[in-house]
Design a protein that fits this description.
Layout lengths: L6 H5 L19 H73 E2 L2 E2 L1 H14 L5 E6 L4 E5 L1 H4 L13 H13 L3 E2 L3 E2 L5 E10 L5 E10 H8 L1 H5 L3 E6 L5 E4 L11 E5 L6 E7 L1 H8 L1 H45 L4 E5 L4 E4 L1 H7 L3 H4 L11 H15 L7 E6 L5 E13 L4 E10 L1 H18 L4 E6 L4 E4 L1 H6 L4 H4 L14 H14 L2 E10 L2 E13 L5 E10 L1 H46 L3 H28 L10 E2 H16 L3 E7 L5 E2 L3 H17 L5 E11 L15 E9 L6 H6 L17 H11 L3 E6 L5 E8 L25 E5 L3 H13 L3 E5 L2 H9 L6 E5 L7 H12 L4 E5 L4 H4 L8 E4 L4 H16 L3
Parallel strand pairs: 24-26, 30-31, 30-32, 32-33, 33-34
Antiparallel strand pairs: 1-2, 3-4, 3-8, 5-7, 6-7, 7-8, 9-10, 9-12, 11-12, 13-14, 13-17, 15-16, 16-17, 18-19, 18-22, 20-21, 21-22, 23-25, 26-27, 27-29, 28-29
Helix pairs in contact: 2-3, 2-9, 17-18, 17-23, 18-22, 19-20, 20-22, 24-25
Length: 948
């Protein structure tokens, strides 16, 4: 086991006290320390000289290698240059030979052909100074180019100042092969040489010579040899006798690293010498750089030697530093340990000793079994440490740890493998952080997040910069985001393009800066429509009291807002309805009196003079009664008696009248579904609905158009969402009127069913048409559907409940029954709170021969009935002070067993709308004529006596 001192001994070490921070006395140096320091110095000096020697040998080797590479390169370049020059000459010899062959035709030299061919040859093969024709006697007869060679015409080459010219010419004439001169002074000036190609006739005799003149400078320039070699080489071209034909060298030879090659061209025997220039040689070998490299290497060797010396000194103090470090680790509040390759503890700090309940000395040299806890905990610790020692990638591991008191803790353990300088062996350093409290906090946070995620309101938590840190499911769903999309987004990400949300964000920011909380209801336009939300954003602070972020809570109240709007609209309509109903009720009472007395005047002996005025009074009263019926229908206070009618039959019967009503510039069509049968609506109400809808469609098409009237069957469950809350789950007949008119704006659609609202000019409409349709539909348990857009026409559909039921009878056109004679002894009790109507009724009934007892209300009628032995018929208003007509009937039935009753009413109270009248009950609406009253009385009395 490595000899490691326990933590207690480390803190008591007189050399280094980590807690107090004292250091070793620098004046106390032992002989062993001095000996180690000298050994370190000698080691550093040895390293220095070894590096010096290695750098020198390496530099010399590099220099020799580069010299050899340059020699080899020069050899290759010289061979390539000689081959290039030989190829250049061969090409020109071949062209000149071709010229010589084409010059003589039939033994005659064609001057024009020769000059043309010579021009072509010189143009295609640069490097030849001139091409001449020499006759067999050696006289130059033709030259090209003429501008620079005219002086050569007529010159006898056997008389040329250079004797070598006559030699070459004579040799060509005798040997019949191409010959050349040595390097001579040319007639054109400059040094060069001449070539002679003999031209033979068909019989083999010599006709003349093609003479090519080459100047050495142009030769090298034309061959581009010097250009291809570049500025890094000197070259020299010499004859076989040593005469220099060309040289680009700036100093005479011999040159260093020179290479000599023979130019293998028959008849030339030239030698090419090539050598690198001193500048190029210096560049390739890079001697200055090698010297600089050698100097840098010496400096680097000195630095390495100094570093080795410094490193050795640091190594000497490493043991002391290691003890200081372990002392500091012992002061950490987190468990820290060091384990060797055998999984034995070589160090344990005080925090680990305290958690294990044992002193650090008891842990050193032991394995994980010395720690408290289960074997599973020990096995997980050992596996992680061994993985770190093997060099495997390790991550921070969370390990369960049971302390000495039996408390279960959770540690995050980080491991680092290193070479322990004290034991000179591999080891692993482990540091554990107790994260039990943090995990408990995270678990609590997760539970809170889960609770928030299940909340009905949309909740988002933002940091102080306005970025989303948490958003529950309701928030992401409300904003149309996925769960992963919300986190990290700023407040600007929730702005709907084209809406006023940008201004809203500025308002939120300003309010939060001022008050720390913003709260209001706002609307926002989304792709699927306008949404209304209640929202609040509040600033919250951290533990230090500083602002930490914001929490936003949103609740979608779109449906609630719609319901509130509908409630306000309903309340408004209810208020107008109450007013209209009250006015209509009182007005009907007055109209009943007016109609009754107008009819009396018409039937009186004075009718001859006043009959016309009475009829006009009656007609005006009837028109006023129609207006009050519309008001009562809208206010849902009209009589809601059970009724039934064939919808398709009513539509067909009404079509001729509608065609006359709408005019000639509008076409009206009908499409009636045959399955539509009886509806639980009065025939007159259906006619009123159709007429009002058609008139409304006609007024929307001043320039003409088309109206379509349709009937279909539908289920209340499949009605549009806006109608479903108003409809039951049964079957409905849908009466729809569609026009091709101007359509309605959204603002008009919101108010289209309000009473007295109209878009027509003053005097052109009362504004009660669609209100009446709406009232009839609502009163009968149906609804009205509107679909319109500006410029696209309108469709108004009325959903009517399908019938008949046991309480409904199909209505037919009323027929006027004759008034029967008064039944003998018929006694009628009249209960009416309006004195004028009561007086009018009593007068007409008595005039018809009935015995009449009248009362001002139900209570008074009940008292009067007690004095009447027989009551053949009770005529009673439904709504009266103290006791109404329905309650009066119930009291009389309880006392007498059976009483025939005829109800009258100016509007329908709640009892009638909820089914207060029976199937056999009869009701006449105010205002009514005297004839209507008498007919109804006769029918009820006939029903009592069994007469028909």
């Amino acid at each position: 086991m490595p000899a490691v001192r326990p933590a207690a001994d480390i803190r008591a070490d007189p050399v280094v006290d980590a807690a107090a921070g004292s250091v070793r006395d620098a004046s106390v140096v032992s002989p062993a320390v001095r000996h180690r320091r000298r050994a370190v110095a000698w080691r550093a000096i040895g390293v220095f000289f070894a590096l010096i020697l290695a750098a020198t040998v390496l530099t010399i080797g590099i220099y020799d290698d580069r010299q050899q590479q340059l020699e080899a390169t020069t050899e290759v370049v010289s061979r390539q240059a000689a081959s290039h020059l030989a190829a250049w000459f061969d090409a020109r010899f071949a062209l000149a030979a071709a010229l010589a062959a084409r010059t003589a035709r039939d033994g005659v030299v064609d001057r024009d052909v020769f000059l043309a061919e010579a021009a072509t040859l010189l143009a295609r093969t640069p490097g030849l100074l001139a091409i001449n024709w020499v006759d067999v006697d050696g006289v130059i007869r033709m030259v090209y180019p003429p501008a620079a060679n005219e002086s050569a015409l007529g010159v006898d080459l056997f008389e040329h100042p250079e004797a070598d010219v006559a030699r070459a010419l004579a040799e060509a004439r005798s040997s019949l092969v191409v010959t050349r001169t040595r390097n001579i002074e040319l007639l054109q000036g400059g040094r060069g040489f001449a070539l002679y190609w003999p031209v033979q006739t068909a019989d083999g005799s010599v006709l003349g010579f093609v003479n090519g003149v080459v100047r050495a400078a142009e030769l090298l320039q034309a061959s581009e040899l010097a250009l291809n070699l570049g500025p890094g080489y000197w070259l020299e071209l010499r004859d076989v006798d040593g005469a220099v034909a060309f040289s680009n060298a700036h100093q005479p030879g011999p040159w260093a690293l020179a290479r000599e090659q023979r130019v293998a061209v028959p008849g030339l025997d030239w030698m090419l010498t090539l050598a690198p220039t001193p500048a190029y040689r210096s560049t390739v070998v890079a001697l200055p750089q090698l010297i600089l490299w050698l100097g840098v290497s010496y400096l680097l060797a000195a630095w390495v030697g100094w570093s080795v010396w410094r490193w050795g000194l640091r190594q000497e103090s490493l043991r002391d530093s290691e003890r200081v470090l372990r002392g500091l680790l012992d002061l950490l509040p987190h468990p820290v340990y060091v384990r060797d390759a055998g999984s034995r503890f070589t160090f344990a700090n005080r925090a680990l000793a305290r958690a294990s309940g044992k002193p650090a000395t008891a842990l050193v040299g032991q394995d994980s079994e010395a720690l408290p806890g289960s074997r599973a905990e020990h096995r997980r610790l050992d596996e992680g440490d061994r993985s770190a020692l093997r060099g495997e990638p390790t991550e921070i591991d969370e390990l369960p740890f049971t302390d000495a008191r039996g408390h279960q803790r959770l540690l995050q353990v980080a491991r680092v493998a290193f070479h322990d300088p004290v034991t000179d062996a591999p080891a692993v350093l482990g540091i554990g952080v107790d994260v039990t409290a943090r995990h408990e906090a995270e678990a609590l946070r997760a539970r809170i997040a889960t609770a928030l995620d299940q909340a009905g309101e949309a909740i988002a938590v933002l940091d102080i910069k306005g970025r989303v840190e948490f958003a529950n499911a309701a928030f992401t769903e409300m904003m149309g985001l996925r769960d992963a999309d919300a986190e990290g987004l700023g407040m600007d990400a929730f702005v709907v393009p084209g809406s006023n949300d940008v201004d809203l964000l500025e308002e939120i920011r300003a309010t939060l800066r001022r008050d720390g909380i913003w709260k209001r209801r706002y609307t926002s336009a989304w792709a699927d429509g306008v949404r209304v939300r209640d929202a609040s954003v509040s600033l919250f602070r951290g533990h230090d009291g500083q602002p930490a972020g914001f929490i936003g809570v949103l609740r979608d109240v779109t449906r609630e807002s719609e319901l509130e709007d509908e409630l306000r609209q309903s309340q408004k309509l209810e208020a107008v309805g109450r007013l209209s109903g009250g006015i209509a009720h009182d007005f009907n009472n007055l109209l009943t009196v007016i109609l009754g007395y107008a009819e009396s005047i018409e039937m009186s002996p004075a009718a001859q003079s006043a009959g016309g005025a009475a009829r006009e009074i009656r007609r005006a009263a009837e028109r006023a009664a129609e207006l009050t019926r519309q008001l009562l229908t809208f206010s849902r206070r009209g009589t809601a008696r059970a009724a039934a009618a064939e919808l398709n039959v009513v539509v067909r019967d009404l079509m001729p009248m509608l065609e006359r009503l709408i005019g000639e510039n509008i076409v009206i069509d009908q499409h009636l579904e045959s399955t539509v049968g009886i509806v639980a609506v009065d025939k007159a109400e259906i006619e009123q609905i159709i007429v009002n809808l058609v008139v409304n469609a006609r007024d929307a098409m001043p320039e003409g158009g088309r109206i379509l009237v349709t009937t279909t069957l539908a289920s209340g469950d499949r009605a549009p969402p806006g109608l479903q809350p108003k409809l039951s789950h049964g079957a409905f007949a849908v009466l729809a009127v569609t026009d091709t008119g101007t359509g309605m704006t959204p603002e008009v659609q919101k108010r289209i069913f309000e009473p007295f609202f109209t878009t027509k000019q003053v005097g052109s409409g009362t504004g009660l048409g669609l209100s009446t349709v709406y009232g009839i539909a609502e009163q009968r348990g149906g609804a009205v559907q509107l679909d319109s857009a500006p410029g696209e026409g309108s469709m108004l559909a009325v959903w009517l409940p399908v019938g008949p039921s046991s309480r409904m009878k199909i209505q037919t056109d009323p027929t006027v029954l004759p008034v029967r004679a008064a039944a003998a002894g018929a006694t009628i009790l009249v209960a009416e709170d309006e004195a004028g109507i009561r007086k009018f009724m009593v007068a007409w009934l008595e005039k018809a021969g009935y015995k009449v007892v009248s009362a001002a209300d139900g209570s008074e009628a009940l008292q009067a009935a007690q004095a009447m032995p027989v009551i053949d018929l009770l005529i009673t208003d439904i709504v009266m002070p103290r006791m109404g007509g329905l309650a009066l009937r119930e009291r009389l039935l309880a006392e007498r067993g059976h009483v025939e009753v005829l109800f009258i009413s100016g509007y329908a109270p709640q009892e009638l709308r909820s089914g207060g009248l029976g199937r056999d009950d009869e009701l006449i609406d105010k205002p009514f004529r005297a004839q209507t009253l008498l007919d109804a009385v006769a029918r009820r009395l006939d029903q009592r006596t069994g007469l028909d």
